[in-house]
Fold this protein.
Amino acid sequence: MHAKLAVADRRVLLVSSANLTQSGVTANIEAGLLVRGGSAPARAAEHVAALCSSGTLTRLEW
């Protein structure tokens, strides 16, 4: 399984198997975890920032 994640304001974290599209969220049967508060949202944001800084993650240009 692979997961998608979204972090809002370093305070809310969504980790889900759903594609973050309208049909992916409404039409498919998926699992997800919503975390509000604690250290997990900030740590996830820091991890993604570190992956970007190292060049492991890069922005896709269309």
Observations:
- The chain has one domain: 4-53.
